[in-house]
Amino acid sequence: MALNHIQKGNHMTWTNNTGADVESGSAVPVGARIGVALVDIPNGETGELAMGEVWELPNAGVEILQGATVYLDGNKEITTVAENNLQAGFAFAAAASDESVRVKINA
Q1: What is the overall mean pLDDT for the chain?
Q2: Rounded Cα gap, residues 24 and 65, in angstroms
Q3: Which H helix or E strand runs over 88?
Q4: What are 88-95's contacts with CB under 8 Å, separation 24+?
Q5: pTM score, two decimals?
Q6: Of 5, 41, 44, 88, which shows the fewest CB atoms inside 10 Å?
Q7: CA–CA gap between residue 79 and residue 54 (Å, rounded)
Q8: Cα dihedral 46/33/12/56 (nearest 10)
Q9: Calpha distance 99→6 (Å, rounded)
Q10: How are strands ordered across the β-sheet holding 46-50?
């Protein structure tokens, strides 16, 4: 194996400097990507984020078609609106406006 390989990149160590605690399972903006907290991460502390795979995330109240590009809004909910939101990945399954959304993150 190459000596400069660090890791597969499935998880990222992240320091929470948001001013609020982050609950396990919450979507977290990281630059131009999102992660999902694998543990509760108190403000000022460090924890692990998942940087891939499929996660069930809160819906911003919109109908979402399977395969649609989805975005994380300012309320940490998934929407199909790109403007002023962070691309989260794509909808792994369709979701009604009152359902959570399964998202393949960073894809």
Answers
A1: 96
A2: 26
A3: strand 86-91
A4: 88/27, 88/34, 88/57, 89/34, 91/64, 91/65, 91/66, 91/67, 92/54, 92/66, 93/66, 94/63, 94/64, 94/65, 94/66, 95/59, 95/63, 95/64
A5: 0.92
A6: 5
A7: 16
A8: 90
A9: 38
A10: 11-15, 46-50, 33-37, 27-30
